[in-house]
Amino acid sequence: MVSSSHEAMHHIFREDPGVFARTFRRLDLPFPDPVAVSLLPTDLTEIQPTERRVDTLLRIDTASGESHLLIIEAQGKPNPLKPSSWAYYVAHLREKYGIPPVLLVTCQDRNTAKWAEKPIVIGPAFWPTLTLRPLVLGPHNVPVITDPSAAARDIPLATLSAITHGRDPDAPAILKALAVALKTIDEETARIFAELTELGLGKALAAETWRQLMAVDLSFFRSETSQRLRAESRAEDILLILDARGIGVSEATRERITNCMDLETLRTWVTRAATAATAEDLFVETGD
User: Fold this and answer.
1) pLDDT digits (tens, 9 = 90+) for 82-92
2) Backbone phi, psi, residue 282, to 5°
3) So what's the pLDDT on residue 179?
4) Which domain range does residue 122 map to?
5) Does residue 174 contact residue 165 with C-beta atoms inside 8 Å?
6) Confidence at residue 211, expressed as pLDDT on a 0 to 100 scale
7) What is the DSSP letter of 252?
8) Cβ distance 40 to 57 under 8 Å?
């Protein structure tokens, strides 16, 4: 029987496929951000009666024009039958779609992750015919996000962090950071990630902590904390854009940007940062 935690571990990538590239860039694997994503059928059954299904299958198209398939499998414990199934998935999908497949395995404990990340060699010892190298996300490499500001900047990754580390001593701090971060986004999206988190935690002790956190009325989305976190995030975006364009920012200008709590003003400055000749051009005609 498929568990709720199993479902949540791969549904996160359906909600935000870009979290895959962002996570692995932290691990020095240069996967590009997607510009288009297609959810593909997960049924790999052939004419023969054997039924085969992957957990999630995405087609990732990138700005360079290159595409790849992302096969996502959530694994709760080592299973000696899985490697041959994974090899079948990769070979079958490469033949079916004609583009390179990438196998991602998500795990919630270190032992399973260690087992899953071993190269899978198929063939006799003196001549390996096929070697499969899964990418693995688990407690050993998914970042522990306990800062609410960091969680607010990437809520899908913060959700993955909460689920992956649900059995760790850091779990309560991770969940509190995510709970605060959810207050910075619209209520519908927040509820999606809140539900994914609860599903992903399953029967872990941290699940009760999460339910207590979520028992608070979610009308706090416009709270003072929410306003501050969103403002901090936009201010950081402005400074990153200016830095990327090689535009110097004086200390006084930096303080003016980071101290601003008005989201509409910050939104205007974000837009202007893309074309401004100097940092001070952000403030032209703001009326303040």
Assistant:
1) 998 999 999 99
2) -60, -30
3) 92
4) 4-137
5) yes
6) 84
7) H
8) yes
